[in-house]
Amino acid sequence: MMIRDVLLSEYGKTSSRPSPVNQLMTDFAVGFRDGCDINLGVGYVNERTIPHQQIQIACEKVLAHPEKYRAALNYGGAQGSPNLIASLRRFHIENRIGGITEQTLNNRDIVIGANGATSLLESITHLLPAGIIFTADPMYYIYCNDLERKGFKVVAVPEDDEGLDTERLKAKLAALGNEKEAIRFFYVVTVNNPTCTILSNTRKQKLVDIVTRLSYEVGQKIPLFFDNAYSDLVHDSTVEPLVSALCYDTLGIVYEVGTLSKILAPGLRIGYLIGSKGPFLNSIIQRTSDIGFSAPLINQEIASYLLDHGIEAQIETVNNGYQQKAKQVKTWMAKLLGDNIQECRGGSAGFYFYLTLANVATGATSDFFKFLTRTTRHEAVDGPSDAQHPKVIYIPGEHCVHPNGDMVEVGKRQLRISYGFEELPQIHTALKLMKSAIAYSQEN
Predict the structure, then answer these.
(1) Which residues on adjacent β-strands are paired with residue 225?
(2) Whether the model pTM is above 0.90
(3) DSSP strand E in 131-189: where?
(4) How far is it, in rounded angstroms, from Cα 373 to Cα 366?
(5) Per-residue pLDDT reduced to its tens digit, 99-110
(6) Comparing C-alpha atoms, which of 432, 442, 236 is closest to residue 350?
(7) What DSSP line would sit under 296-328, residue for residue?
């Protein structure tokens, strides 16, 4: 008798096949050679920005003061550590993060995710019914891929140099007609991943106004989620100070997702959500309880201590480091890649550059990609099988733009590179190899 395999849900079936970026990174990681190959695709923070010694001190302080950091090595409550929530509240108010004041937070609450900001985004997909989601294009491909595997329809609106284009958004909303009632939420990354385009305050306010009017039109509050993962990493002094979208919200539809991964350490896994008190926030808390009570309490208490002791200096150090790297990498790109770059976004915040090449395809089947991954099958290019030349990994633009969106064609010539994780000498080598890859592409 034939026995069928494990019965999977629809989501299980789609998840049994790795996403394109998952497969890309997995394939590269299998043969990655430390000290030889260069990874500009990974979104890791730079190791030098992680305050190793301060984290060690914080851990010791937490364990030495059980009267304040109660049962720090035990389970925690589903909303999160009261100490961390108080520290985050104080951090935002005293440092006027985004112009937030005591009044801004009066009718709102803070919830800590079970495992970083991603766990909060993932919870949203379980708590809201499937339907239409609006986001920017290029999009945060990891989350948008997850949304579509869970049955949501993602509508991606192209961005310009101020972020998601609200005029094009209005046109797409008008085209929906009665289907507007199927809109479930809007998701916008304020310093976009992959492009690191900074959403301007004017554009942010327009988004809040549009979704507020839409909520009244359909008779239902439609959540507007702003992902602030990189908002603390604005290292260009010429950029206007970012204003929190909470300051523009009169209906209680704005939620901000924050993280301490970029300014402290990803390994602490601290993500948080700020939004109006009510059923939705309550459902997030219950979801956190269902999947593991809370983030590790010791990590939360360490983060609380760090927020209360020297966080301003830490953020300044982190931003100074990324600013110096961004300037140097931009200089090298101009010198080495020159007119081959049609457009360059990023460099003012976060740690990505998003490039559009003039006449060179960048996808996984392109000569450019094959040259950099040493898969041309020409030994002169790839090197001998037992000692291949250095490889360079990046994120092709074809994975960053929505496959049914307006940017499919231009996405074939785009790529995201990170100047976060690797050090400058390795990045310089990678850019020189990219110059050679462009030449190889134009010859073939």
Answers:
(1) 187, 255
(2) yes
(3) 132-137, 153-160, 163-164, 183-189
(4) 11
(5) 999 999 999 999
(6) 236
(7) -HHHHHHHHHHHHSSHHHHHHHHHHHHHHHHHH
